[in-house]
């Protein structure tokens, strides 16, 4: 009985072994593309790619991109559009294809013929002090007439006047605290950047009856306290100079404000401008800290809390409201004359593609915005300079037949980013991907905004 059991086990083992051998040699190894899909990273390719990257070319890219101011939809912006198209369509080291994608977007600009003004005026409306309308130029390129006046994009136009108060960072808690000490109705609030979004400083102020808002960058927050352009700030270092003003978009939401959740094409339905939410309901204007110093150090009233104090060599008071009777601005008001205007304009994304060899309908998106408030050497052109060099190296390898990615790579040079990530937001709102015949199965998105803020970009 035991002998029969042993023989049975041996026969079963032999049969199992024969089955494994037959299975090993008889089963297909799979489709021909399977090895490509499962292939590990080619370290030799990465080494070759890095060896091809030319830092001098990155430098020249940066020089070309920052030649002139290129605010969204301006002539300077169109010049950068043509640069991107020329490079990405180059026969020797361009991409497989490149094109421009137009959107009709709602933007906000100052009136070039009627600049915004902020003044201190006495009871007879005599001007006691005028805020700089443009920054002090240190080099010839800063004298370019296309350098836009500092302004708050999407601030409403308006003419308001009132006693000045200091509201720290313009947070809801700041206005609540300030309102316990000062009647804010009809006042002008001066705030510093930080703590709350740009537009939120005005949105938070309006419920308290504030008529207008000024915003500045305190040297304590960005300059390590340094204030003098004689030997401390730019042009002697990277610190913001006294007249320097941070421009920006003062809206809360991203993308075109008239076409939420829809791509801003010519035929797209647009909401009425009065239905836009998340933008300042009262005039707001950015100024330099040299002017903020003059205003804040003349304020009357109680001393602001310790946490509200900044770099100026004076006590930051809350305002009486208004100025000290012993100051040069006694019994004076701050007057804001804002002439911003909104307009729908064409803004272009420049798109490029390297088609994948194995899974062309799956792709990685690499993008960087192109527009800037002025010359944009760091934000965004440092990133775009790197992106152009990456596409040059990869494009040349593709053209020479040396390499092609497994998945497609789509490159995006976004327009109108400074106005609220408009170019990239509109791209994502396009429902159909028919422009490059791809179906979205998966997407990895890289935003190369500024080279110096990305640890892995050199």
Automatic annotation (TrEMBL):
Secretion signal span: none
Domain Peptidase M28, first and last residues per copy: 349-428
Matching SUPFAM superfamilies: PA domain, Zn-dependent exopeptidases
PA domain span: 160-249
Membrane topology: Single-pass type II membrane protein
Single GO molecular function: carboxypeptidase activity
Subunit field text: Homodimer.
Protein name: N-acetylated alpha-linked acidic dipeptidase like 1
Organism listed in the record: Acanthochromis polyacanthus
């Amino acid at each position: 009985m035991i002998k029969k059991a042993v023989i049975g086990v041996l026969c079963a083992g032999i049969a199992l072994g024969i089955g494994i051998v037959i299975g090993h040699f008889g089963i297909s190894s799979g489709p021909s593309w399977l090895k490509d899909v499962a292939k590990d990273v080619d370290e030799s390719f990465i080494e070759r790619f890095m060896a091809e990257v030319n830092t001098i070319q990155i430098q020249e890219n940066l020089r070309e991109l920052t030649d002139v101011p290129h605010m969204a939809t301006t002539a300077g912006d169109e010049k950068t559009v043509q640069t991107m198209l020329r490079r990405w369509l180059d026969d020797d080291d361009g991409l497989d294809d490149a094109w421009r994608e137009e959107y009709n977007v709602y933007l906000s600009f100052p009136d070039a013929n009627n600049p915004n003004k902020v003044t201190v005026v006495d009871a007879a409306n005599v001007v006691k002090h005028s805020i700089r309308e443009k920054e002090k130029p240190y080099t010839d390129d800063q004298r370019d007439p296309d350098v836009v006046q500092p302004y708050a994009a999407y601030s409403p136009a308006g003419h308001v006047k009132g006693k000045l108060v200091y509201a720290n960072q313009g947070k809801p808690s700041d206005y609540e605290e300030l309102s316990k000490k000062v009647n804010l109705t009809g006042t002008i609030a001066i705030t510093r950047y930080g703590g709350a979004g740009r537009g939120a400083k005005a949105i938070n102020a309006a419920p308290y009856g504030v008529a207008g808002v000024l915003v500045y960058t305190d040297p304590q927050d960005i300059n390590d306290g340094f204030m003098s352009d004689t030997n401390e700030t730019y042009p002697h270092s990277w610190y913001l100079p006294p007249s320097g003003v941070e421009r920006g978009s003062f809206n809360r939401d991203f993308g075109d404000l008239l076409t939420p959740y829809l791509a801003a094409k010519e035929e797209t339905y647009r909401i009425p401008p009065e239905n836009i939410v998340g933008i300042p309901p009262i005039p707001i204007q950015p100024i330099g800290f040299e002017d903020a110093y003059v205003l804040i150090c003349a304020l009357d009233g109680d001393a602001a809390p310790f946490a509200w104090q900044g770099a100026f060599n004076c006590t930051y008071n809350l305002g009486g409201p208004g100025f000290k009777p012993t100051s040069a601005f006694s019994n004076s008001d701050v007057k804001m004359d804002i002439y911003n205007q909104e307009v729908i304009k064409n803004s272009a994304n420049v798109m490029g593609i390297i088609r994948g060899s194995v899974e062309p309908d799956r792709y990685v998106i690499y993008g960087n915005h192109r527009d800037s408030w002025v010359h944009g050497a760091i934000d965004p052109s440092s990133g775009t300079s790197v992106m152009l060099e990456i596409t040059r190296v990869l494009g040349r390898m593709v053209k020479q037949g040396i390499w092609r990615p497994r998945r497609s790579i789509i490159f995006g040079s976004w327009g109108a980013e400074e106005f609220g990530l408009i170019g990239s937001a509109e791209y994502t709102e396009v429902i159909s991907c028919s422009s490059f015949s791809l179906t979205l199965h998966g997407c990895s998105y890289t935003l190369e905004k500024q080279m110096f803020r990305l640890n892995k970009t050199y």
